[in-house]
TrEMBL record:
Name this protein carries in UniProt: SGNH/GDSL hydrolase family protein
Superkingdom, taxonomy of origin: Bacteria
InterPro entries registered for this protein in UniProt: Ester_Hydrolysis_Enzymes (IPR051532), SGNH_hydro (IPR013830), SGNH_hydro_sf (IPR036514)
Keywords: Hydrolase
Domain SGNH hydrolase-type esterase per the UniProt entry, residue ranges: 51-191
Amino acid sequence: MKILGVLCVVLAAALGAAGMVGYLTFLRPPDNPPSDACAKPAERPRVVAAGASMTQGSLGPDWVAALRAKHPGYEFVNAGVNGNTIADLRQRVETDIVACHPVAVTLLIGTNDVRNEVPLDQYRDDLRTVVDRVKTATGARLAIMSLPPLGEDPDTDINRRLAGYNAVIKEIATQTKIDYLPLHERFTDILGQGGQARTAYGFSFPLAFGAAVQHYLLRRSWDEIARRGGRELLVDHVHLTDRGGAILADLTTSWLSAPAAS
C-alpha cells in the first residue's frame, strides 16, 4: 500500500507537470493580446504583430516581447494565435488588427497553410483581403515577412511547396506597395553556410511537446534544445530557436527604425 501511495503521488505530479507544460505551450494567451490591449485607448503608438504560433511565442522565443523591451516608445500588441492559417487571420482582422488602431503592422502568416496544403489561389485571395483591409481601415505602415523554411534542409518537397507561398507573399507586397521583410532569405543564408548536412522536416506533436518539457521544466534554452536535435534555427522543424527569434526581431527593428516610404 505504501508503494501504491508513492506511485499515485508520482503519477499525480507527472500529470500536473504535463498539464502545466501543455497550458504554457498551447493554451496560455500571449502578453498584451488584442482582447486586452485594444479594449482601451492607446497611450503610445501601437504596433500589431499578427500571425500564428511563431508570433505568439509560447513554443519558441517571444520576439514581440524582445521588441517591447527595445522600443519602449511603442505599445506592442501580440496578435499571434497558435495554429492559425491566413483564413483564420482573415476572420479576426477587424478585432485583432483594425480595432487596435495601429500605426504599424507586421504579418507573418502561412506556415500552417503550407503544412495543410491550402491551395495557393485561396492563400493569395485571403492574404490580399487582409492586406487591403488593414491598409484601407488603418493607414498603418504594413510589413509582410517571408516564411522561414520547414525543417532545415531546403531540398525537400515541403520546402519546394513553401517556395510557392513565399512567391505569393512577395507578389502581394509588390502589388500593394507594402514592405517585404526577407525572413526566409536570412534563414537560408545561414543554413547554407558551412556545407554540413541539414535535418529534413519531421515535425510531430510529441517532438514539440518534448521541446516544451525541456524548456519549461528543465529550463533549457530553445537554442540548446535545437542543438540536441541537430538543428540551428528551428526547435522542432517549425518553431524558432532563440537565434531565429533574434533574426526576426532584428528585421522588425530595422523596419520600424527606417523612415516610412512616401
